[in-house]
Amino acid sequence: MDISTQEKEEKNFKKIDCKEENLEETESKEKDSKEKEYNEKDFDVCNCKNIHQDIVDTAYNTMPKEEVLYDLAELFKVFGDSTRIRILYALFSNEMCVCDIATLLNMTDSAISHQLRVLKQARLVKFRREGKTVFYSLDDEHISRIFDCGLAHIQELNNY
């Protein structure tokens, strides 16, 4: 490659870098503006420093241990993937094998197996073998209640 071609390529890379930096800066400013607007409009903040010790004590005494809260957060992380939500919803009506779920969700067996592994580790689904076929189902009734509460909340918020 001759020097003039190399110089042209370097200039092009610099132009691209500048465009990306400007785009990132613009996106960051828009995000900051939206966050500020959201915070100012939707929240009333206490302007005094008056601790209500009885309320703080009650909350402290009823709050689960830190490791329980950590486990709860991990459970909700599992619910944070739409594919896993779709799989759970599919299992509400019947137990299903991987290939049935894959067909229903128009995904590969491998992708479904990966998500089922995560759901199984979180003890949200269980499995049973019937010959060479493995059937998955919800682990217990708590799973559908958690799902139903979340769905009801979303439907209430969005007027579905």
Helix and strand layout, with pairings?
Elements (H helix, E strand, L loop, with lengths): L2 H40 L10 H10 L3 H13 L3 H12 L2 E2 H8 L3 H13 L3 E6 L2 E6 L2 H18 L2
Antiparallel strand pairs: 1-3, 2-3
Helix pairs in contact: 5-6
How large a portion of the residues is in β-strands, by DSSP E?
5-15%
> How many helical elements?
7
Give the N-to-C terminal Cα separation: 61 Å
The overall average pLDDT, rounded, is 82
State the CATH architecture of the largest domain.
Answer: Orthogonal Bundle
Q: Order of helices and strands, N to C? A: HHHHEHHEEH
Gyration radius over CA: 25 Å
Shape: elongated
Number of domains: 2
What is the strand arrangement across the widest sheet? 1-3-2
User: Largest beta sheet, briefly?
Assistant: 3 strands, antiparallel
CATH superfamily of the largest domain: Winged helix-like DNA-binding domain superfamily/Winged helix DNA-binding domain
Structural class by secondary-structure content: mainly alpha
List low-pLDDT spans.
Answer: none
Please identify the top-level CATH class of the largest domain: Mainly Alpha
Tally of extended strands? 3
Determine the fraction of residues in helical runs and give it as a percent range.
Answer: over 70%
Task: Give the gist of this structure.
By secondary structure, this protein is mainly α. 71% of the residues lie in helices and 9% in strands.
